[in-house]
Amino acid sequence: MLFGAISCKEKPETVDAPGEEKSVVEKVVDKIGEAVAPKPETSLSNEERAAKLGFAKYLPKDTEMVMTAYNSEKAAEQLKALKLYGLLESGLGTDEIAPEADGAIIEDELLEEAEQDADADVPEEAEMPESPNPWMLLGQEVTIALGDTSAQQTGRLLTLNRRMAYFQARALGKAAQSYAKTGNMDGFTEELEKEMSEGLIRNLIEDTESGIGLLEKAEMPPLYISFRAKEGELEKAAELVNGGMAMFGMAGEMAAPVELETGGGKFAGYKLLGSEISKAMAEGREEMEKKMNPETVDALLKILAKKNLVVVTGTVGDYVVVMIGGSEESLKLASDVKDSIVATDEIKFADPFADKQLVSLVYGAKEVWDDIMKEVGGLGSYAIGLRDGIAGGGGLGETRDLEAMLDIVADREKALMALGSSSSLGLVAYVEDGLKIESFGGYDKGAVDWDAKTKLAHLGDSGDNMLFLNIPSNAIHDEKMGAYIEAIVETAYAATVKLADLEIDAPELAEMKQFTKLFDGQFREDVVGLYGAFGGMSDGLGHEVAIVMDLKGSMPAIPGIPQKVVDEAKSPRITMISPVTDRSKIRDSWKEIDVRATSLLAKASEMSGKKIPMQKPISSEKDGMTTWFFSFPFFQDDFLPSVTVSDEWFALSTSKTQSLDLVGKAAAGGETGSGIELHVNFTAMTGYADEMLKVVDKNSAEIFTNEEKLEKFNREKADMVKVIEACRDFDSMTWTVKKESGRMHCLVHFKTK
Asked: pTM value?
C-alpha cells in the first residue's frame, strides 16, 4: 500500500517558534525549483516513539528486522481518489458495448424474471456466512519482525542456496563430459536429471558447507506477525487469526499444545515435535539409504529429532499477534517500552517523521546485510561448480585452460563484491505532497563515487526536461566490473569453441561447429578489435554521466507523415553526456571502430553476394565542438543521431541541436551536485500527450486515409482524453541518493498535484 497515499492533499500545519533558528545544513534545491531543507536533528522520548511506531514498542531490543505498514485502509481510500484509479475501475470504453444475443437486446421478461429470483426468500439455514472484512486485520497496522539470530539463519539459508548453485553447475559439467564421450544427447539428459534430483539432495546433505553441520546450527529465528485491530474488534480479529491454528490440531502426535506468557499477554498454540517427525521419517529409512549413506541418515534423523517449531497466537494491547520460533524461550515480547527496540538508537532514524502520516517503516540490522552479502552467491558459484564438473579429463579432452578461466570469473566477482559495504537500514514512507520514501544506510555496492562533485548536475535545471539522470560512478568499480564482464564473455566463448572442437558426429553440434568456424575465420579479429576500440573510447571519458530527455524536438519528415504534422508536432530528444579526459583516445578509438566496421561490412557483403557499402560519416565544427553523423534523407539538425566531441565533453544524442546546447551548458558550468539524481516530469509527459493528440485530431483525415481507421480513432479519442486528464494527478518523481555521515541517504518523491 505504499503508493496508495500519493493522492493525499493533507499537509500538517507547522509553526516556527519566534526567533527559532533554521537548520544550518545547506538547502538542497531539486530540479523543479522547489527548495527542500534537510530536517533538523530530532530526538523523541521512548514513549513518543512508542506512540508513533505502534507494535515496535513490544519488540525486544535484539530484533534484527522490522517491516510495518500503517493505515493501509486509509491509503487504499486515497488511492481510489485518483482519477486514474477511477478510470480503470470503471472499465475504460466498455460502456459503449451493449449486451446482445444474436443481434437482439435481452428481453425485458428475462430481466423481470431475474429480479423476481433475486427477491425470492432464502431459507435461513441456506444463507451463506458473511465473509470477514479483510481490513479487520490489514486496515490499521501490520508488522512483520524477525528477532535475534535472524541474520545468522538468513546467512545459513543463503549458504544452502549458494551450494545448490555449485552442485547444479557441477552436474552440468559432468553431463557435458559424458556427452563429449558418447555424443548421445539422451545420455546427457539422463546424467543431468540424475545429478539434479537425487544426486543434488545427497550432495547437499553430505557437503561440508551445506550439510549436516549447517543443519545442526539451523533453527527458526523468532518471527512476529501483528495486526492492529480497531476499537471493539479485537476479539473478532483474534478469532479470525486463531482459526488458522486448527490445522496444527490435525497433526496428531506430531504436535503438542503449548502456552506461554510474554509482553503482558497470554499465548496459546502448538509445538511441532522434531522427535515425532524424526520417528516418522525413520520408517522410510530404507528409501533414504538409497540416496545417502547410513551414517548420514543416522546423523540426519538425530538432528531432526532436536528441531521443534513453536506457533502461538495471542493478544497484546490492541494487537493480535502470531509468534513462530524454534522454542518457547526464543519468543519474547517487551513488557516495558524501555526494554523494546524503540528505546535503542537503531530506530532513531524515524524520529524526524513523527508529525507525518506514516505509510510504512522498515528496519534491518547491519548484521543482516553483512551475512547476506557474505553468503549470497552470484555467477562465481556456478563458475566453480562447472570447473569441478569438467575437471579430471574425459571426452572434453584437456580442460585446464577453461578451468583457469572459470577461476578468473569467480575471482573477479569476489573482487567486485569486496567493494561493497553495509550499515543498518532505516526506511520510512509517508504522505507529503504525494508519497515520499526516505531510507538511511543499507547496502552500498561501491558503484558510486559519493565524494565527487557532479559537474553536470545543473543540466537538470530546465523545467522542460521530461527525464534527467546524473550519476558519478566509482572508477575502481567501473574497472573491476569491466574486467568481470570481460572474463565472463571470454570464458563463454572458450567453452563454445571447446564444444565445437569435439570430434563427434552429433546433429545438434553441426550448426555450432559451422558458426564457430565461420566466426573464428572471418569475424573474430574484427569483433575483438571493435570491443577493444569501445573500451579505449571509454578510457578517454570521465566517470560521470548525465542523460537528458525532453519533448521539444522537431518531427522528422518521414515519408507517409503529412507535412502539417511534421510542421506542428514535436518528438522526444535524448542525449547522454560525459566529461572527456583524453580526446586522443576517443579519436584513435573512432578510427579503429571505422576500420573494423568497414571490414565487417565487406565480409558480410561477400557472404551475402550483395554489396553493402560502408557509409562515410559527415562532420561539422562549431565553437571547438565536432559533431559526427551519417546522412539520411529525412534527417535534420533536431533529429540527427550523432556524436559530439570537444576537448572537455562527449555527447551521444538523437539531436544535434540538443547535443550542442547541452555541451555548451556543460562548458559554461553551473551549480555542482553529488550522488545520484533522477527526475521524471509527468506534467511534461501529459502536456506532450495533450499537444500530440490535438495535432493528430486536427490532421486526422490526412493521417488516417483508411475510413475504418479514421472511425476507430474518432471512437477512441474520448478515451484518450480521459486517460490524459487522469494522469494529470501526477506531477513528478524524483530520486536522489547521497552519502551523509558515512551512510547513504535516499529520497524518492512521487509528487501529486
From this structure: 0.85
